[in-house]
C-alpha cells in the first residue's frame, strides 16, 4: 500500500513530463484534458486515465469528475487499485482510473466492452494482465475498457443508519456509474460507440453488472450485460449491512462515522481483515446494499426488474465452480465415502441431509469418486442456483437472456479441479497464452477461446451472441432451458444436469438479508 500523497506527487510529475510526448505516441482528447498512450502490437492502449477525482477527501461519499488539466497527462501505466487487505500492486484512495484498448483514434463507432473485475467487492483491480483487451480488439474490432473503483468498506460500508452518507453502501457502484458516464462522454474520441456499451464481469464483477441493472441512474448508460459466475440474487439488507458497519467502526476504534472518515486509510484496511460478525468466518463482507435510494430493489428478488427487461443479458457459470476453493482437498484425494457427508455439510448452502445428497448422487453418477461428488454437489448446491434464478426470473418477464455453462476442464493438477470458478476469464478475453488463465494454451483451449470471444464480441455488437463461430444459441426459456455448453465440443443442451437442479430446488436458495 502506498500513501495517497505519494501517488498524487507522482501523477503531477508524470503529467508535467508528459507535456512533451515522444513523437508518434497516440494522443486522445477527453473532456478533462488530453492523454498520451502507447501502441502495442497494433492496438492503441491508454492505461490509467483518470475518470474521477481523488476519493480520499470524499470518503464514503459519491465521487465527482476530475478537474480539467492542462498539458498532456501520461496514460501509459496503470493507476493504483483501491485499498484492500490483499494486494500485489500499489493502492490508494485516489484510485478512479480506467484503461482503454482501441483499434484506432477515429470515428469508427465500434462496440464498447466495459469489464468489471471480480474479487467479491473487496479485492482486485482492472489492471490484471488477464483482462488485457488487446486480443479482443484485434479479433473483433471493438473497444475494451477496464475500471478501478472503491472496494470493501471504502466502497460498500452502509453507514447511513450510523450518521453517515445515505449513499455510502453503494459508492463503489456509483464509481462504476461515473466510469460509464465517462464512456458516454468520451469514448467516441477513442473509436467507440456510446450507444453500444456492453458491461460484463466475472464473480463480484458480474454481481456488480447485474446490480447496475437494478439502479435507475445506471441503466441508461449501457445496452447489454453479461455476468460470468456472478450469481447475485439479493443485495445486503440494510439491517445486516448496518451491523457489519458498526462492527467495522468498533474494530477500527472509531466512535462515529466522522472519526472513521478522518482515520488513516491503513487503519481502516487493517480493520477490514476482521472476521465477519454475521458469518463467523472469513473477512468482513461488504457488498451492494439495498438502501432504497441508489439501489431501490434487489437485483433478482422477488423478480427481475422489468425496467431492465429490454437489456439483453448473458448468464454464465462454470461446471465446477467450487473447484477453486476445494483445490487442496481435491488434489490430496483423501475424500472417502465416510467423510464425504461431513465435507458436503461444510460446502453446501442447502438445508438438505448430506447423507441423502450423497445417496442421490451415487444413483445419478455411479462412476464418480467421492471427490468428484464433493465437487459436483458443492457446486450444484452452493454456486449454481443463483445463476438459474437469474435466467428463470428473466424468462418469466420475457426478457432476452442467453445461458452458458463452461465444461472445459483446467489441466491443473491433472484435471481434478474441473472447470472451476474464474476459468472462463482467459477464454472470453482470448488470453489463454497467459499462465494465469489456467486453461493451458493448446489447440483445444485456443479454439474454445476464439469461439467464446467471438460470441461475446457479437453480443457487444448486436445484443445477440449468435455468430458463425458457434452453433445456434437459443434464448433461455423455462420449458426447454437451452444452455450453450462451452467445451471441446461446443453445443446446446436443454436443461443440463436436470436431476441435480431438481435435487437442490426443494430448498430455498437465498432470502434477502435483514
Offer a quick outline of the entry.
Helices cover 32% and strands 15% of the residues. It is of the alpha/beta class.
Description:
By secondary structure, this protein is an alpha/beta fold. It has two domains: 4-228, Alpha/Beta hydrolase fold, catalytic domain (Rossmann fold), CATH 3.40.50.1820; 312-505, Rossmann fold (3-Layer(aba) Sandwich), CATH 3.40.50.1820. It has 16 helices and 14 strands. It has helices spanning 4-17, 134-140, 152-156, 171-186, 204-212, 238-252, 257-262, 265-272, 327-332, 340-347, 354-364, 370-383, 385-396, 423-428, 443-462, 498-505, and strands at 27-29, 34-36, 38-40, 43-50, 72-74, 97-102, 110-116, 143-147, 192-202, 224-228, 313-318, 401-406, 482-486, 491-494. The protein has an eleven-stranded mixed β-sheet, sandwiched between helices. It has a three-stranded mixed β-sheet with strand order 1-2-5. A hairpin with a 4-residue loop joins β13 (482-486) and β14. α10 packs parallel to α12 (370-383). The longest helix is centred in the C-terminal third of the chain and has 20 residues, at 443-462.
